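Hi again,

Forgot to attach this to my earlier email, sorry! This is the prediction with adenosine-5'-diphosphate bound. I've pasted everything inline since the attachment limit keeps bouncing my files.
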Amino acid sequence: MQGLMQKTPLLLSSLITHAAENHAKAEIVGQSVEGPIVRTSWGEVAARAGRLAGALTRLGVGAGDRVATLAWNTPRHLELYFGVTGIGAVLHTVNPRLFAPQIEYMLRHAEDGYLFFDLSFTDLVAELAPKIPSLRGLIALTDRAHMPTLDHPNLLCYEDLLAAESEAHPWPLFDENAASILCYTSGTTGNPKGVLYSHRALLLHSFCAAAADGLAVSCLDSGLLVVPLFHANAWGLPFAAAMVGAKLVLPGPRLDGASLFSLMQAERCTFAAGVPTVWFGLFDYIDRNRAALDLSTFRLDRVLCGGSAAPRALINETFGAFLLHAWGMTETSPIATLGRLLPKHLGLDREARYDIQAKQGRPVYGVEVCITDPEGRRLPRDGKAVGHLRVRGPWVTAGYFKGEGGIVLDDGNWFDTGDVATIDEDGYVTLTDRAKDIIKSGGEWISSIDLENAAVGHPDVLEAAAIGVPHPKWVERPLLLIRCKEGVSVTRQAMLDFLADKVARWWLPDDVITVDELPHTATGKLSKVSLRKTYADHLRKAVSDGLA
Ligand code: ADP
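Structure tokens for the complex follow:
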């Protein structure tokens, strides 16, 4: 027997319609690329998304057509989130921090018809545009007065396009399984692969993001979105915020500690989302300038942190805000596990509570997780067994765009994440490594994440990277690279002494090297591939010189 309820499709346009009708005055504040702070609202974003939809239709963009963006977190980029997807076209958010050849690959692979870009990327666009045969036009995300000089037969001005349209573009209804956003994984090995989100997946994901035991986003919140709109849909927050009418604060291109702090202060931000490096930058800035800053209006209540492991050292330095540790990936829309506490943890002292928060969290409703051995057999949830982390659920990918990478699910629909983890009796997942980053010493595994977390616990260390490098006897041994805080240094021996009671003896790095900078990928993770290359001979050489 069928239920007798309406079959309204779960479309992203329903979110902006809802926000416009019920939270029209809720603010959207953004740092523009041109300089000034822009103050707008959900009502205004909805109206302009409607104009954009009209403009796109006039340009001949229809259902399923790909439209790319190379843009920061700004109100205009938010309008694109709704204007493009609302007419059934596919928004392809491109990470501008990637190398130009990778971006070229993605634009060609996606066959984008139009590219919307921020002025910061004019040179990049000038270089790329002639190489993308599918591109019919370029749209500069600015007004007439700021139009860049760029030699292209169809260079358009965003504000001119919008001005020519009416706000009342009716959002069409279509199949909720239609594609909405396309986001490529960075492809640290091989070519980037496209994850193609459906409307249904992102809408269901928004319910989870907004829920009290999710990110608990509400209309009382003012949320600072540091996680880029080009990184896995900014973790679904634009949609969750539209669902509940939360105020959003968009930092544009200014992501340094001082700029983020002043925006947070001015806009009374209650939550913020971003990768650990951003928070290290911000909290280090606050710490160093404590005396000069007015912290009395600092309202930050929760910090959503994911993308890389949030070390203990970060969890206890958040100036009173609760660090909500999350794990996910582009392929999981991205929220999969969240570090919420259980009732039994409420009485714990701070240190014990931080131990829980340092884990990657428990699965949210909608995502199932398990760990398996290399043969695919399930391993127990005992907090000890280490296995390959697999996930499945309605917002987990079923395959990559254009079939790249072949079949990605096993018979039970499980997706192998490429991460290695334990799961404890309460369901908390602890990531020990990415499978390819594990340090394999004499047949045993050493967790690079554990080593790094222990190293950044040192008060003078800002960032650390542990990599496995070839060793003549042990196959691989750990090498630790550290970046110290300004004006201080830590010797090799001091670091080894510091680590001695924090990790097993055989985990102690064979060498510790201080560096000025550590390389990062375009999504803010440590770039271990390049480090492994640079230091490939480090231990072999040390051994042959009799130093290790
Ligand atoms: P990319 O590979 O393009 O950087 P993703 O953001 O999809 O893109 O990366 C997902 C990966 O990031 C996960 O598979 C995992 O290795 C890592 N990751 C995400 N969140 C965490 C976390 N909280 N702790 C440790 N690693 C994480």
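The pocket of adenosine-5'-diphosphate is lined by residues 185-186, 232, 306-309, 325-327, 329-330, 360, 417-419, 431, 434, 521, 523, 525 (CB under 6 Å). The chain has a mean pLDDT of 94.

That should be everything now.

G.
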